[in-house]
Design brief:
single chain, about 40% strand
Length: about 350
């Protein structure tokens, strides 16, 4: 063998030996402390990866995919959890206690209030959680008129005259001077209003009660659609007219034949017996588990229970899911016929995030 080649081989072996010594040196340090580990201590996971990475080219090392951990963004200083209780220990430490067992519940806790003058420590704490959320809100006619009329929405009036087929109209004209919001004409399936519900946390399942107060005797039928819409443009609504109750799920979108976005119902349910009572209730429950499941119910007359036209109807449909983003939820209403008059006084909404197994 040529002397130069022999020298090259010797240098290569020496370099490999030095690298091996440097690699193994941390495992033979004399200052390592050996302790008895508990039985449930997991085995180290990094040694094998270090050996693989040592012998592999950097370009061949598999890259780890970063998964965003689920976090809870509630504010414990302003929100109080019904599931988690917080108390301060005698040494000032924060202690949390589960009042209700909720699977994989995410929560935050925080100190609040004044400090103890003797110890300088906070004496009160509070927890909030992202596993549950409940919200009650009332939208008045002024809220709808001032904040709910989107660009493509029908433009209502709160004061003035309009055409009406009501028996109370004079020469076909009715008055809107009582301060309630009046939707008097528009395109079929046009959006009337949309109002944010102020939901903070995302959800897998929800329940929403909607109570409508108004006057529905100004024109024939009066079966406006009301419910909620998510960020993906899917709406869950119910309507009540003279002939019965309808339940619908569909998309709010523009088509080639539409000059503006309209509601396009795809799934439809029906219950007989209508009503013109000035107060009625819609309840929608939705879960995104599995294929998705929706139940929409209606009490068509909250003022005259037991009356001849009183009806509680319900409809269940599978195959529909929301986008699950709480902040995208809006109360919404759509027009059914182009010449019906809908006078709305108040809309009460009770939203509740439901737990799923």
């Amino acid at each position: 063998m040529e002397p130069a080649l022999r020298l090259f081989y010797i240098i290569t072996v020496l370099i490999a030996a030095v690298d091996l010594v440097l690699f193994l040196k941390p495992y033979f340090e004399t200052d390592l402390k050996i302790v008895d580990a508990p039985h449930d201590t997991p085995l180290p996971k990094n040694d094998f990866n270090r050996m693989i990475n040592f012998f592999q080219s950097p370009s061949l090392v598999p890259k780890k995919v970063a998964h965003r951990p689920k976090t809870c963004t509630c504010d414990a200083k302003t929100e109080n959890s019904k599931n988690v209780q917080c108390r301060v220990g005698k040494h000032g430490q924060m202690q949390s206690h589960m009042l209700t067992q909720v699977k994989d519940l995410k929560f935050n806790c925080a100190f609040f209030g004044d400090r103890d003058p003797n110890t300088g420590l906070k004496t009160k704490c509070q927890c909030c959680d992202c596993g549950t959320e409940e919200k009650k809100i009332t939208f008045t006619s002024q809220d709808i008129y001032n904040h709910g009329i989107c660009e493509e929405c029908e433009k209502p009036i709160v004061k003035g005259t309009y055409n009406s087929t009501s028996v109370h109209a004079v020469s076909g004209l009715a008055d809107a001077a009582n301060g309630n919001v009046h939707f008097t004409s528009g395109k079929v399936y046009q959006m009337m209003f949309r109002l944010p519900l102020g939901v903070k946390h995302d959800y897998t399942a929800l329940s929403m009660d909607i109570i409508v107060e108004g006057n529905f005797t100004h024109s024939y039928d009066n079966d406006l659609m009301i419910g909620f819409i998510d960020g993906a443009g899917t709406a869950w609504v119910a309507q009540r007219g003279d002939n019965g109750i309808w339940f619908s799920i569909g998309k709010y979108l523009s088509s080639s034949n539409d000059s503006l976005p309209l509601f396009h119902p795809s799934s439809l349910g029906f219950e007989p017996r209508g009503s013109r009572a000035n107060k009625y209730q819609v309840r929608i429950t939705q879960t995104n588990q599995g294929r998705g499941r929706t139940t929409i119910s209606m009490d068509n007359n909250l003022n005259d229970e037991g009356g001849v036209f009183h009806k509680i109807g319900s409809w269940t449909k599978t195959g529909w899911k929301t986008d699950g983003v709480g902040s995208d939820l809006h109360l919404c209403a759509f027009r059914d016929d182009d010449n019906e008059v809908y006078e709305i006084n108040k809309v009460h909404v009770h939203y509740k995030k439901l737990q799923v197994e």
